């Protein structure tokens, strides 16, 4: 038996998660395990009613689960950034989910906007560092003078900045990015381990030609880790260049490892070349703790409750979740059943079909059960 926490969240979140749990239950039935789902009411609605985002109690409860199945958050009534930082990023940091794993793979039968590229050409994994870089959330806006103590507190380390800032500009803003040796090393090592089980190539993506300190450290660590894996080829790319290569030669990539912010950006590009946001899953992984699996798209409030949202990204995220729980066979079966549903034309409108969210899930579930 597995116990999994569920946060449907906002907008289409609850519908796509209902589709996902339906499929994972079918996988459990087929492969002989049971999942006990525990729903958590976390999201915009609760925030608007009671002003809380993520409480200490939520964190303590969630910490008892090996995995969280997460829909989406985001609501037009809430100022941008509040839910993202207060819920999603707060969970990634609190549970030290230091890997953001994003498979970029063109499934059979899916259209890519890249001419002359097929499933064999688009099949790589982005390992995005998930706790550092410009996501640490420290910075300030000011006029004149200011003295600030800024800190980043992590399980792995903490950093404090005492800053005296003085400026005669009308207003300035600054944001500090932090990269640590141990923080980069664990993400980079994870990427090499992953490549060792795949096509044995790791590409580092950074901007060490301009942000020479933060990404200079990243590169040093990358080179150090690479030396431990003589059988895995490694290379460096600058982030601007990699956006060209993802489009022109996606077949070059096997595992791409990158600091947090570039990882955020290039995985949306990755989502497009794999057929769109409706097909892109992500895992926020702490190999020894509570991990979280989610579609990388948002809450799409205007489609809420219509039953038309594409559940594939969420179901695929469910496959990553099963993999994390040690159910490799079931995880693989979910992914092949997704491909089957595409071949059968049981897809939502964004993929040129007319099936509803639950109909897609039911078809995938039935495929798994009859496999
Ligand atoms: C993602 C999202 C988040 C991020 C936002 C919602 C905070 O874009 O998961 O990629 O920037 O990491
Ligand atoms: Mn993003």
Give the secondary structure arrangement, pairings included.
Elements: E1 2-9, H1 13-31, E2 35-39, H2 44-50, H3 56-62, E3 67-72, H4 82-94, E4 99-105, E5 123-129, E6 133-142, E7 145-153, E8 158-166, E9 172-178, H5 181-196, E10 201-206, H6 214-227, E11 233-238, H7 239-248, E12 255-258, H8 260-273, E13 281-285, E14 291-295, H9 312-324, H10 328-343, H11 357-369
Parallel strand pairs: 1-2, 1-3, 3-14, 5-12, 10-11, 10-12
Antiparallel strand pairs: 4-5, 4-13, 6-9, 7-8, 13-14
Bound molecules: 3-isopropylmalic acid and manganese (II) ion.
- Can you list the strand order of the major beta sheet? 2-1-3-14-13-4-5-12-10-11
The number of helices is 11
CATH class category of the largest domain: Alpha Beta
Ligands bound, unique? 3-isopropylmalic acid, manganese (II) ion
How many individual β-strands?
14
CATH topology of the largest domain: Isopropylmalate Dehydrogenase
- Gyration radius, rounded: 21 Å
Low-confidence stretches: none
> Strand count, sense and closure of the main sheet?
10 strands, mixed
The end-to-end distance, rounded to whole angstroms, is 22 Å
Order of helical and strand elements: EHEHHEHEEEEEEHEHEHEHEEHHH
How much beta, percentage-wise?
25-35%
Report helical residue fraction.
Answer: 25-40%
User: What best-fitting shape do the alpha-carbon axes yield?
Assistant: globular
Mean pLDDT: 97
Number of domains: 3
CATH architecture title of the largest domain: 3-Layer(aba) Sandwich
Output the CATH homologous superfamily of the largest domain.
Answer: Isopropylmalate Dehydrogenase
